[in-house]
């Protein structure tokens, strides 16, 4: 808008304000009445002002540098200048009157601004005049730009990836960004922030198949989480589940990354409207070192109803960049080239954006240049990220857990047979043990497995002719050669799993009989003994099954060890340890009863281990099916899933430019008053590249189906490949979903009463751009 146009505009608004109407205020010099309206969101549609100008007005009133004094001066000489300025600032700053606190209420849209008393067409006109110049087209000689010559050379710069990004994206909703941030950065009496406590989610310790049966968590919740994911066997990466130096207990640890992202778009947000995204990233090692620069483009970014985000992504990276390369990255994105190899090189990621914009016919011809793309830094996102990798457990680990369950079936059968032979149990108890023995032997000799599998195979129209000697077992399925064999082996694996779960129920019925632990008053003494044993031997603390503790107990006696046990437990009680509140000193008979309580706990864990062992039959089948349906796929025992939890602060580019170098250092929080929004986001992503074999196989088979040349095996294969890949994608959602209770608990304690944990509707970058673009 030229100065002449702005003068004409001011005159026109002044004349309009003299007319009557519900949405028109008093004369410009008189200002607006309390209920005057400029039309709110409809101001975009009437074409009187440009969308750019209206967006800039929203940014103006939300900006930290906009104060009562500056607005008062802007609205002068309107008679209502003081009232308008007071009300705008009061609304934005919240009840406490201070910008940068949890009750801030920044203006989300034009309707919210229009609803402020004494803000109507006259006030809007003055704000438009103040911001309109920022919407003028720039002089190309004064700034970087991209045109038809930019990508004439070979693209490159750093090293690149071009893949489909698949991730489950969940976020906290039902709380304003300002309140969320205030809660997340608040600290407890030990100096820990709420964010640090939320992100270290011990539920993730359930997925530790690679750490051995004796060191996996076997509490009920961990076991149930694993049972809910019967095909994908995840395990925490090496080095992130190590024993604590003080307690000896294995604990989850997280990597932490600090990242500064700059999101770019055009003045009209043409990328956002086309589901395109372009960002530059600086990933920090510490407050003085940037480890990596990255320029990434995404297209077709969507989030489905399950929270699975998918997008085509291409990026280019530069590890350990120079000071000059760091300083120029925003400039480089705006010009489409980088100097990361000693000479200027077009960036392929930016070329993909340029080509799409060219195809859509939105590039400019201006000032002697053709096909001009004017990119602007729009939003800066500072993310504090906790990072954890999950791998697929090795087949050896899966087979080891399957074997561990089989061994415990055999152990329970042997113990039951011994008690029956000794005549120490009678009546109903003897019936329970007799049924356990019969079920266990039928599983161990495979006769029941063959019988159950045959019944389903026959019902499905398959052979169903196996006996105990010929029925193939999951650990030895071998290579699958046909779709019908895949189905057959699945039925056998499910029969194994179901029978193992049935036997686990039998252990549950028999555990007090097998352990001779009838008196429930002694149940807590197993926990007392475990804690005492760990205090004497920290290497025991990592053991999650009872056998190591029971072996230690059986090497002791009441005569030599009971007094030490009593003294230690009584000391814990005296120190106020709630776990020992009910402890009473024991005598020799109590010592024996404690041994039985340890055996009871052992059988309770055996029940879960046997259930897990049965589930491993399904997992072993799944891996065979994966190999058959997607021959080029592999088991990802390294960096398969990336689980990240981000607290992200969003700052407009105009606000970012007001910050000093000292204010943007990563060893301190950004000034709260410049942040226009904050989010808590969990992204669980399949490592880029791991998805290729599955997507390519499905596409290959889809082509055959579409061409009408697919065989019956091809049609079965496409359904099988989809099933396999859907299970992997489903694991993303399950890992993200399990954060819900912890997030809600901590945020609600902080005062976010209505907070929920839900699939994110948009990515972090999209969220920031949509807010600044005033897109509903």
Describe the fold and architecture.
This protein has 26 helices and 16 strands. The strands form four sheets. The chain has an eight-stranded antiparallel barrel, surrounded by five helices. It has a two-stranded antiparallel sheet with strand order 3-4. It has a two-stranded antiparallel ribbon with strand order 9-10.
Could you give a quick summary of the protein structure above?
With 776 residues, the protein is α+β, with helices and mostly antiparallel strands.
Largest sheet, strands/sense/barrel: 8 strands, antiparallel, barrel
Anisotropy-based shape: globular
Number of strands: 16
Distance between the termini: 26 Å
> Mean pLDDT, nearest integer?
92
Number of helical segments with 4 or more residues: 26
Helix content: 40-55%
The whole-angstrom Rg is: 33 Å
- What oligomeric state do these chains adopt? single chain
**Which stretches are low in confidence, meaning pLDDT under 50 for 5 or more residues running?**
1-27
Structural classification: alpha+beta
- Strand order within the widest beta sheet: 1-8-7-6-5-13-14-15
